[in-house]
Design goal:
The chain is an alpha/beta fold and 293 residues long. It has a single domain, classed as TIM Barrel. The chain is built from ten helices and ten strands. The strands form two sheets. The protein has an eight-stranded parallel beta sheet, covered by helices on one side. β4, α2 and β5 form a beta-alpha-beta unit. α3 packs parallel to α4. It starts with 9 loop residues before the first strand and ends with a helix.
C-alpha cells in the first residue's frame, strides 16, 4: 500500500490548535430550505442545534454551520440579513454548548464577523476570499482558522459546469488558483498556520475533473497546508456508484474519503458523521501500520 505523508501537522484556530496526527471529521449542518442533500431537514434553529449536538456525540471534531445553499441546480443567493437570521443563533448555541470548534460556512464578511463574535473558530469560505474583499481582514483580525476552497463563479453557479474549463491539467489549474487565494489570505494578514485548502470537489468541475483531482491529491498536499476534502453525497459519487439520491451515496463517500486519507488529506467534511468516523479510524490504523504519517 502506498502512503503519503500529510502536509501541515497542525491547524491553528482562534483558541486552540488541532493536531492532524489523525483524520478530523467535520460535520455539516445546513440551516437552509434548499441544500442538495438535506435541504429543509434542519432549517429551524432547534433542529439545526440538535443535529450539531448529535454530530458531536457521533465523533465529529468540527461542526460546520451554513445558511446559504450552493447546490448544483437553482442555488439562489441569500441576503445577509436572512443568512444571519438562519445561522447566528445556531452558532451561538453550538459554541456555548459543544466541546468541538464551530466553523461558519459563508462567503459574506458580515456573517463571518458575527459568527466569530459568537465564538466560531473557523471560516469556511467556498469562494476562497474572492467574493467579499473584507473577508480576509475579518478573519485575520479574529485570528480565525480559514478554509480556502477552490471554486469559480458566484453562489448561483459555482456548483454548475458553467466555469468548468481547465485545459489538460485540472489539478495544476486548481493549484494555481488556490495559490492565488493563499496570497490573498496572507496579504490580508491571515497566518499561514491558520490556512487549510479544499480542492472544491464538484464545484465548477465535471465528474471526470473531480476524479482527476482526487487521484492527484498529493500534488495539493505538497503545498504544505492541511487539506480538506468534501465529497459527501456529491454528484460525482452518484455518477460513479449509480446512486441517484444523495442520501444513498454513503458507501461511495466512504470510499472516496479513505482514498483521500491515503493521499494525505486530513479533514473530511461529511453529512454522515458516525460512518465517516468509524471508516476513517479503521483506514488510519492500517495506514499508520504501513508507515503513513
Amino acid at each position: 500500500m502506498t502512503s503519503v505523508a500529510a502536509a501541515g501537522k497542525k491547524w491553528t484556530l482562534r483558541s486552540r490548535t488541532l493536531s492532524l496526527d489523525t483524520p478530523l471529521v467535520m460535520g455539516v449542518v445546513n440551516v437552509t430550505p434548499d441544500s442538495f442533500s438535506d435541504g429543509g431537514n434542519f432549517f429551524s434553529p432547534d433542529a439545526a442545534f440538535a443535529r450539531a449536538e448529535e454530530m458531536a456525540e457521533e465523533g465529529a471534531d468540527i461542526i460546520d454551520i451554513g445558511g446559504e445553499s450552493t447546490r448544483p441546480q437553482g442555488a439562489a443567493p441569500v441576503d445577509a440579513a436572512e443568512e444571519r437570521r438562519r445561522v447566528i443563533p445556531v452558532v451561538e448555541r453550538s459554541c456555548a454548548a459543544l466541546p468541538v470548534p464551530i466553523s461558519v460556512d459563508t462567503v459574506k464578511s458580515t456573517i463571518a464577523e458575527a459568527a466569530l463574535g459568537s465564538g466560531a473558530e473557523i471560516v469556511n469560505d467556498v469562494s476562497a476570499l474572492r467574493l467579499d474583499p473584507r473577508m480576509g481582514a475579518v478573519c485575520a483580525s479574529a485570528g480565525a482558522g480559514v478554509i480556502l476552497m477552490h471554486s469559480r463563479g458566484g453562489v448561483s453557479d459555482m456548483a454548475t459546469y458553467a466555469h468548468a474549463d481547465y485545459g489538460p491539467d485540472v489539478t495544476g489549474a486548481v493549484i494555481a488558483e488556490l495559490q492565488a487565494a493563499i496570497a490573498r489570505a496572507t496579504d490580508a494578514g491571515i497566518a499561514g498556520e491558520a490556512i487549510a485548502l479544499d480542492p472544491g470537489i464538484g464545484f465548477a468541475k465535471r465528474s471526470e475533473q473531480s476524479i482527476a483531482l482526487l487521484a492527484e491529491l498529493p500534488r495539493l498536499v505538497a503545498l504544505g497546508f492541511p487539506v480538506v476534502v468534501g465529497v459527501s453525497r456529491k454528484r460525482v459519487i452518484g455518477e460513479l456508484s449509480g446512486a441517484s439520491e444523495p442520501a444513498d451515496r454513503l458507501e461511495g463517500t466512504i470510499a472516496a474519503n479513505v482514498l483521500a486519507l491515503a493521499a494525505g488529506a486530513r479533514v473530511f467534511r461529511v453529512h454522515d458523521v458516525r460512518a465517516a468516523r468509524r471508516s476513517l479510524d479503521v483506514a488510519w490504523a492500517v495506514l499508520r501500520r504501513g508507515g503513513a504519517s
